[in-house]
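Hi W.,

Here's what went into the run:
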Amino acid sequence: MEKDLVIGIDVGGQTTKCGVVDARGNVIAQTVIRSDTHTDVAPFIDELAAALKRIIADANAEGRIRGIGAGAPNGNFYKGEIENAPNLTWGGTKKIPFAKMLSEAMDGIPVSLTNDANAAAMGEMTYGAARGMKNFIMITLGTGVGSGIVINGEIVYGHDGFAGELGHTCAVRNNGRHCNCGKSGCLEAYASAMGVARTAREWLEMSDEPSALRSLDKITSKDVYDAAKEGDKLAIRIFEYTGKILGQSFADFIEFSAPEAIVLFGGLARSKEFLTEPILKAMNENVLPLWRNKVKLVYSSLKESDAAILGASALAWEL
Amino acid sequence: MEKDLVIGIDVGGQTTKCGVVDARGNVIAQTVIRSDTHTDVAPFIDELAAALKRIIADANAEGRIRGIGAGAPNGNFYKGEIENAPNLTWGGTKKIPFAKMLSEAMDGIPVSLTNDANAAAMGEMTYGAARGMKNFIMITLGTGVGSGIVINGEIVYGHDGFAGELGHTCAVRNNGRHCNCGKSGCLEAYASAMGVARTAREWLEMSDEPSALRSLDKITSKDVYDAAKEGDKLAIRIFEYTGKILGQSFADFIEFSAPEAIVLFGGLARSKEFLTEPILKAMNENVLPLWRNKVKLVYSSLKESDAAILGASALAWEL
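Here's what came out:
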């Protein structure tokens, strides 16, 4: 039987999404399981394999699966392992041979693993806003800041498979915010959903400026967005600041790999009406003249619900 | 006749070095001409072609030249042009079709062009300290700071051919030194030979600390090195500061492309006895834990006189 389908899996901290995908990028069957009900990986792999077999049956795809692609936090493409992923309940500091375990549980179907941001970049290149681009940088603005770098049409993995940690480049050199990674001043500490909420809390404390955000118990980046939409001046300035920090960093990224575009993806990227202008301003002010106003800033064009599955599935076609 | 030789050319602001190179990386004939006696490129190309024909005759290499590789400031690999090279007397803001002109003057021998730092990286990968490495970053510490980035065994050119301007990433975000590129706070403004001399002048003005450097009319980075060798405390601190700035930036570069090594090259790299320790300290303090103490810092192992020619010649083998 022709092996004309692949499976894409997006392993997140709370849930794992998986789907059967055809060559045109249609998700023809999908499901979601919880990622966080086990502290050991073995029962999770069992549940995942059972879920995959269900959607294979749903799609009438027995014998037609060419390969499985998975994106996961700290997934290592070279080794097929998940290493040091504290956000996964079964992750911790262990090295988990994820690709090998899943392939065995799936009767030998080959499994390719990468990190979630690289999977998103693959998806964007194959099906989304970066189609036809050979050089771009994908920045995922979610709870944290991730990145997938594409050079000459290929994901950059580097010497050890972990390249592309742009969320942990330095945005603020001195007295920067503490970051979850243990360092200070990382881009992620400012320009993630978490960072935006933190900016809001800090700024509310620093002045008595009126703002709709003051009435909230716990502020999320979504709250800041909603307030900005209502014209809240402080909320709008928070996005201006966030965009400036992003644009400054993007200028340095451009000087590294001279991409055709920076592609933004993830929850915080939905605030584009407030982010685009300050990002472009800071990016063009800080980049060498030869790239000024030349590098595009584009937003993911994939349906958010499919993007992660499609990205991971794109990896499987290369198996 | 077998085409078993190539020519490497290093175009610098003052001089242009060229050599006939065999497959083992032996420079079997070489010469140097002035680069700065013309304001128009045509007579320079004529002189260069005449010089090449002389060394081809010296090497008894008529009919054996497979190709010519040239490294030049702002040389663009994709277009074969030198664009906006103010350091070349015949450069200015024009676009010069260097590869095409030289090939025509050399009876159709193909010419490949790249920038000088990329040529150095090619040379280091083919003949030098980076032999066998597929992922490394070459940093040239000369009058300025240049860079050549190698990923998966290939020079990174990016979308437009100008990738790898790491000397113009931001080292000091606020109130940074003005850089020749028009921006402020660039790595080059601190960590080049020029930058070291500038640090010396600034620090001498800021205090009355005794230093051998005070007696000099015009301070060069070589003077700072000589003073440091004599135990001059201020001079040693200047290198500590320079190394710290470099190490901080290298940490961000590692987060981008996860190289096996950073390779240092150029005049200022000769001060390695004073630079290595502060670079490694700052690099390892500022990089994500997963790369701490894992990325090598190595120094060019090519004879300086041959390195530039060899680097450019490596490009010619790919023609």
